């Protein structure tokens, strides 16, 4: 059994019952593909992906789903397969031309890279590492309200790794920039691919060391300490942010 992961305008196209279409079921849409390929580099499966023309109509039995919320329909395993397929599709879509000489690129299956048809330059899939950290102080967790969050929603702090940084330095800098506090005892927690559009989330825990909270307002509008029984609304999907929060709550249950 192989699956076909189909995308249109950033959304994933599923069967109306929320299932990922198998390759045969996707046949009515293939004539509208502007690009397609295999999901796995070495062909471990025959799962494929396809990018639909933006104006292509969806046949009866298909529907568009938001990728971030589709895990409730497809389950955790397929959610991350969808993410991998989207990452590859989006990378090829954005690397049609060589950044060195401007000529067209073509997919090189052996290298799993986009190769310039003129100068031979290779462009591999882009992965953007980002840290996400749970900070604790005296049995409370530090949570922030992002500028693009719905009203009342909070999360642990996160940010992208910058050139020349190691992960621990990034943890310290991001927490300091967003909340004005310094942290210590930084420890690795877990990692997770997060293709929105191309991140690798690296989770950490840390302890407050010094400073008083002062949110930066450009990335977070509010930052507070919350006790385990005071946790506000947060994204309860399969994200590592939820795992960090839920692990904190579980460890502090009386």
From TrEMBL:
InterPro entries attached to this UniProt entry: NAD-cap_RNA_hydrolase_NudC, NudC-like_C, NUDIX_hydrolase-like_dom_sf, NUDIX_hydrolase_CS, NUDIX_hydrolase_dom, Znr_NADH_PPase
Keyword Magnesium: yes
Any single Gene Ontology cellular-component annotation: cytosol
MF terms in GO: metal ion binding; NADH pyrophosphatase activity
Reaction(s) catalysed by this chain's protein: a 5'-end NAD(+)-phospho-ribonucleoside in mRNA + H2O = a 5'-end phospho-adenosine-phospho-ribonucleoside in mRNA + beta-nicotinamide D-ribonucleotide + 2 H(+)
Pfam families, A to Z: NUDIX, Zn_ribbon_NUD
Keywords: Hydrolase, Magnesium, Metal-binding, NAD
EC number: 3.6.1.22
Thylakoid as UniProt keyword: no
Cofactor(s) this protein cannot do without: Zn(2+); Mg(2+)
Domain Nudix hydrolase: 122-250
Protein's GO biological process: NAD+ catabolic process; NADP+ catabolic process
NCBIfam families reported for this sequence: PRK00241.1 (NF001299)
Family: Belongs to the Nudix hydrolase family. NudC subfamily.
Name of the protein in question: NAD(+) diphosphatase
Native source species: Synergistes jonesii
């Amino acid at each position: 059994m192989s699956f076909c992961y189909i995308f249109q305008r950033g959304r994933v196209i599923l069967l109306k019952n929320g299932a990922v279409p198998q390759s045969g079921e996707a046949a009515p849409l293939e004539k509208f593909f502007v690009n397609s390929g295999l999901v796995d580099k070495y062909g471990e499966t025959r799962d494929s992906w396809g990018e639909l023309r933006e104006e292509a109509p969806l046949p009866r039995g298909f529907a568009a789903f938001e990728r971030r919320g589709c895990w409730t329909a497809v389950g955790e395993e397929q959610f991350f397969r969808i993410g991998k397929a989207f990452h590859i599709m989006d990378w090829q879509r954005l690397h049609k031309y060589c950044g060195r000489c401007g000529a067209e690129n073509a997919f090189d299956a052996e290298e799993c890279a986009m190769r310039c048809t003129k100068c031979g330059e290779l462009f591999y899939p882009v992965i953007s590492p980002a840290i996400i950290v749970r900070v604790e102080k005296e049995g409370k967790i530090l949570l922030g309200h992002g500028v693009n969050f719905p009203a009342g929603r909070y999360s642990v702090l996160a940010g992208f790794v910058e050139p020349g940084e190691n992960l621990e330095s990034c943890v310290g800098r991001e927490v300091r920039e967003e909340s004005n506090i310094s942290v210590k005892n930084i420890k690795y927690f877990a990692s997770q691919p997060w293709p929105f559009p191309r991140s690798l989330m690296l989770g950490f825990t840390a302890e407050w060391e010094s400073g008083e909270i002062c949110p930066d307002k450009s990335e977070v509008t509010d930052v507070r300490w919350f006790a385990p029984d005071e946790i506000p609304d947060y994204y309860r999907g399969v994200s590592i942010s939820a795992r960090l929060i839920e692990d904190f709550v579980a460890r502090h249950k009386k």
